[in-house]
């Protein structure tokens, strides 16, 4: 740009020279009017091309030289100007090409961005597909591993859509009783010997495998319903071949054998031999949730109400299984006591309370029942425990047989004939129970009690008392049990329970005039005293050496202290005391 301005100044000077030549006088005049002292133009100060000084009195030759000098300088400036134009054009073309390259680059960048996004998206989809495939493959591998484990260690066997689960345990057990009962691992709590009885002077040691238990559970789907079958047996039956002399051949017995249908409407129907509905549950009311005293002994414990008998049961759950209600009709049985004040003419002429079976049941005692026991239960399962209210209705019956007329003799008067008649009594009982896990389920506390005609469901087993006239009076007994289970570690369980069963005086039962004098002699021992109460405490442990895929191997030991009190009468009041130590080694099927 500076050269461009210099070129313009030079052109102006040349034009001025030509004008001065045309009118030299005017120029001279102008020159005369200029100051004599020469001055430096401002253009020289700023680096621009200076206009040659033109003397006022310059000659023609000097002007010609100056003109030539200016023309040369003009030509040089023109060349420089042309060169600048060419450079400017080249720069413009370069700028244009640069702009075109930039535009192309931007288009390529946009294309690359678009292509890159699509490629990235496609790559992401491919990565996601690979990951999904890897996930599916990993799931498949895990599933195959799980199935392989199930094939190697199946939780159940499968047959035509039915899942079959074997169970139970093999037991090697032993016991010691301070007073002999000549009984196996199942103690008869009401039959411990009195302190004067000969058996109380003998201790008892016994080993047994008879409590070995085998079970089989089946499950199958029926539409949206579930069908369950269950069978359980042990070897505590008293068959004809039961003997400890050589073969120890004991018979198996039915513990449970039932079927159940569970509908999606929360209704359940069950039928067969099962734990009685009167038995306490740990949760809900369904089968296989029953509470059992963890004692090794095969007869539970004093104060623990239970029966295993044939029944038909219907159950309904509400409020997300927090509330359950059930009703059952169960096989009945009556245990009656005939006190000493009942005349022989009456006691020898009664039927129905107990009879002996015939044929293969000839050693079995039955009562002649008129109706099943009807039992109802409501269970509540809030977050902090399990609570039950239950009631049982029972029917008792006996018969006073008819007697023929007896003709008078010289020494006895005539006895008229009597007509036979049935005596039927309706009664029942009620109770409640609670099972509460506390301290993060390290301790489970239970308390249960029943009152009423519930004798056969407990240890004392007395339901009715025969009155002197042959009628029946229900025995209103009280059964109670309380205690706790603890789990100090996953391997160890420790428990302790205390219990009592009480039978009140009832007509001839518990008579104050009863003769107890024979209860104090060992020879010819014959005690007519009536049981007043059974009291007991027990404590024990179970320790699991192993629990895993192969099953459970555990050892248990317990101690039982029991006292049998009787109602006082004439003479010394006898007492029965028993100390029992039991141990068990068991292997549970997985």
Output the keywords:
590 residues, alpha+beta, 22% helix, 5 helices, Porin, three-stranded mixed sheet, disordered N terminus
What do these coordinates show?
The chain is of the alpha+beta class and 590 residues long. The chain has two domains: 2-107, no CATH class; 153-405 and 414-588, Porin (Beta Barrel). The chain has helices spanning 2-22, 24-33, 42-45, 60-152, 344-347, and strands at 157-159, 162-177, 204-208, 213-222, 225-234, 253-262, 267-275, 308-318, 323-330, 336-337, 350-351, 355-356, 365-366, 373-380, 386-400, 421-438, 443-452, 464-466, 472-474, 477-486, 492-502, 531-548, 551-566, 575-588. The strands form three sheets. A 16-stranded antiparallel β-barrel has the order 2-4-5-6-7-8-9-14-15-16-17-20-21-22-23-24. α1 crosses α2. The radius of gyration is 58 Å and the shape is rod-shaped.
Side-by-side strand order of the widest sheet: 2-4-5-6-7-8-9-14-15-16-17-20-21-22-23-24
**Uncertain spans:** 1-51
Proportion of beta-strand residues = 35-45%
Radius of gyration: 58 Å
Number of strands: 24
CATH homologous group name of the largest domain = Porin
User: What form results from the Cα inertia axes?
Assistant: rod-shaped
Distance between the termini: 104 Å
Largest sheet: 16 strands, antiparallel, barrel
- Per the CATH scheme, the topology name of the largest domain is Porin
**Under the CATH scheme, which class of the largest domain?**
Mainly Beta
- Proportion of helical residues: 10-25%
Number of domains: 2
Structural class: alpha+beta
**Overall pLDDT score:** 85
At CATH level 2, the architecture of the largest domain is Beta Barrel
**How many individual helices?**
5
Order of helices and strands: HHHHEEEEEEEEEEHEEEEEEEEEEEEEE
